[in-house]
Amino acid sequence: MRLVFMGTPDFAVPTLQALVAHGHEVVGVFTQPDRPSGRGKALKPSPVKVAAQELGLTVYQPQKVKNRESIQCLQELAPEAIIVVAYGQILSKEILELPPSGCINVHASLLPDWRGAAPIHWAILAGDHQTGVTTMQMDVGLDTGDMLLKVESPIGEDTTTGELHDDLAHKGAGLLITTLEQLQKGELKGIPQSGPTRYASLLTREHEKIDWTRSAQEIHNQIRGLHPWPGAYTTFREETVKVRTAKKSSEESVKESFVKTPKPGEVVNYRQEGLLVQTGEGLILVTEVQPAGKKTMPARDFFLGRHAHVGEGFGEGWINHE
Fold first, then answer.
1. How many domains does the chain have?
2. This prediction's pTM
3. Is 154 in the same domain as 73?
4. Residues in binding site for (6S)-5,6,7,8-tetrahydrofolate
5. What is its EC number (predicted)?
6. pLDDT digits (tens, 9 = 90+) for 144-155
7. Are strands 146-154 and 103-107 parallel, antiparallel or unpaired?
8. Could you tell me how far CA 156 lies from the centroid of its own chain?
9. Is there a domain that residue 319 lies in?
């Protein structure tokens, strides 16, 4: 098919590569403008732009795809369909109606569940055991268009957002190829969305802060749901620290503790694997942390390197010993 592709982050790259590999004619790739990045604030191209240039495709980077110049460009490209994967801009009704086969979106959830900008993060934050990818015929609503095809993906007890992202990116690429094949054969008809939905809002700094009064399971979900980006954080001796990895710990572990009545956030023991920390319900083993401006390190090394003691704690309200 003659296609225009719209996408920006890493998640979209496998789909673009699959379209070219399966012989589709990608006549243009729309992606977000280069953004300042790093300490030097040098302009950095999006992953989709890099991939498109490697494939020898023409790249367009409008500040606003809804402007008249962009719409005229799309009209001249005359695609049969527009493929949209995490583009980052809202398409106008005029663009949605431009291609004969419409605009087809690859969304990283089993719609209608987890509409919105961060469905992969939220599936893990919520403790879901399953998610997937949906191809959808786009309409003017936010992820509300008719569903075309779905593929499911399990979420393991320790699965991180980074791992799930890569899995769904590749499954989504394959699902789109199948979607286009069936559309071309006239074998596919959209199904209206119905049933309960949850909204995957953009993540804020407040979502990243660990509340140690929550349960060990909830904190474990938060840490892996925000790994590798943006990361769950806490404080220790007023120093901001990201908790990179952790494991749930058996309640029996508290019997080994040197602290009889631990409070949420309190380090009750340490081992080679990490720090055993009390939560509002149960214990969690913090295995890796990242102090501000430094590299990720074993949590035990962080703790002992500060000459810390069992009974000190993470979070606010602690009088810890320097």
1. 2
2. 0.93
3. yes
4. 109-112
5. 2.1.2.9
6. 999 999 999 999
7. unpaired
8. 16
9. no
